[in-house]
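SEQUENCE-TO-STRUCTURE ENTRY
===========================
What this section holds: a protein sequence and its matching fold, both as plain text.
Question of interest: how does this chain fold, as expressed in backbone structure tokens?
***
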Amino acid sequence: MMNSQYLKSVLRGLVEPLLAGLALLTLFLISIDMLWLDLALGLSGGLVLLIITNLAWRRYQLPAAATHVITAMAGIAGGGLAAIAWGLFPYYIGDTLAASLVGLAMALMWLLLDGVAGILPQPRMRNPGWLLLCLLMLACPLGVVLFLQRPPPPMSIPMLPDIEETKDRISSDAMEALVAPAMRAVRADDRSQAEFLIERQIEAARIAHGAGSVREADILMSYGVELYSEGQLSDNRSIQQESLGYLRRAVTATRAAFGPRHPEVALALHSLADAEIDLAKANPPTTADAALIEAHAIRAAALGRHNMETIGTLVAIGALKGLPARVKANPVRLAEATAWLEKAIADAAPGRELGKFTRPALHAHLARIYLANGQRRKGLHELAQAQSGLAELDEAHAFHATMKINNVRSDFDLPSPTPPRR
């Protein structure tokens, strides 16, 4: 027959971990507004191993010093193993270490509680309520501290009408670094792991900064852009198609973060339209038209009609609507497409031309639309306009516009203009 003293020891070894788990659950409920995954993993994984080591201690009567060391190691290992089981390692080494540290903190709390229980009078020691009270006394203050450290709600970002450019707010290197763990999983052909990592990163941004934060929008935009670029490099259309979902979510998130009329929303819309156009070059969906038109309206209002990005959106709309699959030899549709380019030329006022959208370059864009739709005479006229305008430009802008003109001539097998006689 089993020794009654041994049975009591086993029961005590079970009751104490259960009470500790109840206290940790209280901590979880108090601090849930800012709980990170590494905290949950550290608590859950550490608790499992602590229960095992506690039972082993009761069963084999290990020395106190050895018990303390084993308890601490169990907390560290429990948190780390839980993080590894969730697939965080090797993608999120820092979070794996954080989970281990949480497990260690819980182990130290366990040892402290055991010390407190050891100095209680023996009759009270037999009452689990006293131990529960000790656990709650330690857990509740920690939970209150975590609760009070919640981040404030995100501040609304005012409109910035004097912005001159938005495309470089996040550099390509910063975008790549922001979503590097998920992209490593994509390149390892583990798309499910990549989805888990990016969704976890988005959820962490919501917890840390609130729903509709700039951080959430940046993550979605960066992942959509990086995913599309990876699909292009690897010639994988399924990856490119997957990126569209994230780019659409980026538009929604950017609206929530910046407001519906902010230039960042126009940038997100233009990025989505670029991807849709590139995936269906011959005849993109009409959603690309709607995105570009909305982007132009935002940029014209916030940045001004002479702004480089505003003019660039006009060029993109005209090029899209001027595709032969859209025009279908209909002169009304062709006129609608070319009207966007003519507006861009009119808005590129002398002395305010920026970057690649000089007037000669814009005439070359317009020539391409005419030539693609069989209007050779009008196309040649626009090329002549572009050529004659080169003299107004400095060397750098003239070089870029000349490249545009030569590309159009090459694509439509047109002769180069005869250089003037000296």
